# Entry
Amino acid sequence: MTFTVHGLAVSRGIAIGRAVIVAASRMDVAHYFVKTDQVEAEIERLRNARRVVVEEIGRVQQSLADLGPSDAHPELAALLDVHLMLLQDEQLTSGVKHWIVDRHYNAEWALTTQLEIIGRQFDEMEDPYLRERKADLEQVVERMLRVMRGVASPVAAPAPAPAEETAAEPAADAPLVLIAHDLSPADMLQFKQSVFAGFVTDVGGKTSHTAIVARSMDIPAVVGARSASHLINQDDWVIIDGDAGVVVVDPSPILLAEYGFKQRQGEVERERLSRLKNTPAVTLDGQKIELLANIEQPDDAAAALKAGAVGVGLFRTEFLFMGRNGRLPDEEEQYQAYRRAVEGMQGLPVTIRTVDVGADKPLDRAPVRAGEDHLNPALGLRAIRWSLADPAMFLAQLRAILRASAHGPVNLLIPMLAHASEIRQTLALIDKARAQLDARGQLHGVVRLGAMIEVPAAALTIPLFLRHFDFLSVGTNDLIQYTLAIDRADEAVSHLYDPVHPAVLQLLASTISQARGAGKGVSVCGEMAGDVGMTRLLLGLGLRSFSMHPSQILAVKQQILRCDTGKLATWAQTVLTAEDPAALMAD
Ligand code: PEP
Ligand code: MG
# Structure
């Protein structure tokens, strides 16, 4: 029966495919298709993993028996029996085989898919003892996954084959969409290389980092869909409408045809926009507008160039630091990554932001530590605060960026500054990093220094920032979050997350006008910059530099080509002083 689930539209377009329900903690399992002639080998890996785990358990059972009756642990022995039983379970083994044989999933993917299905059945059991056996099942599967990790697939694991290649596979007959309760930004990195054509999560806000990465991947996505991961079943047909924030489950043929038509229309529109790639972004009254790209990984530089960006306005370097079980990239690894981004941009400037972890971008999946769950990480040790708390780590990053600047123009951007003391410490550390490189005789270039304005305290003390920095970049995602006291990742308050709240607009307008008055560069790199509904207002407020996901550049450019900044400046003043600016946005 068809039903719809509503959430927040975060990344445009329509995806139609079969649902794959994945627990966030299992995102780091590789997801790829195997070829027909590799199916048997994949099943063999599975059999082997089961055999190894059965032997492991057998050895533990034997050592328990050796202890003799006085030291016997009856609960442990019973538990091991349960684990053995689960390993022989017909539903688990035949189900996993089904995903490999009929769908050509790799063994790990097949195993975790079947785990989700059986896990749900356990959740629904009345008997609490039986319900708790789900944890045993998870342990058994984890053990098998561990064994399989040591015995790589004969296929190119863990990097999955690209979707286009695999689409030709006989069993990969329909695109797949991922449904999860939650995905962290680190999960999204996994997701970026996977076979899924769209995703839906139960939680998340419009400017949560999960949503931001979805936008950068340019795939349809809906977040904050509440109980979607419970309502949707493994393998259900699903339509994701990333423009409307709607998920249609088990659609009727008429709905499928309607959304299929919309999907094709979207493709035609993209094709039309792509013709603007080489058109300069100049308004009707001759104002030249700078359109820059936001990137998360060095390889994203290619998408930036393809979209016609004239540089990178924000390289979120924290994605190099996440999902590594706390092992941070050293100076050399970072240098190579920054250098790749700089060289990838072929002489165009790259703005590298120092690491911004914390809040909804934790380093890894570690849950909130016991005793700290009352703390608000968005107000805690995040971004520059985190960097200044570990000067050795920060210096390594600064040296890596300075070294990369020898390969092309680099701007160095500092996130979340609010205090004069933070500015002083940061500048002192940049000097120190340079001195260290000089002492080593290592090459480094000249960088322009920029400050992100994303805390109201900073927006209210712009002259301080203009004295110390060459340019400003307004992080509207956080500026809105901190001005309105709205957690940007919390869908429960997403209706109050208002980019055109008069307080936000005033901070934005005064930041732009003060920077321009001082002859310094100012850009916006928050999600607002890539929202075509905001382009006129930002131009009217005097903004001439926008940084956004590559996928948004051409649509924003199209809007710019139709604008007259003189007329917009007058209109923007009325919006700025209105009680309800949102009501004037369509004028
Ligand atoms: C912002 O806050 O607007 C911004 C660009 O930084 P991030 O989204 O990474 O916090
Ligand atoms: Mg920010």
Observations:
- The mean pLDDT is 90.
- DSSP finds 23 helices and 16 strands in the chain.
- The longest helix spans residues 39-66.
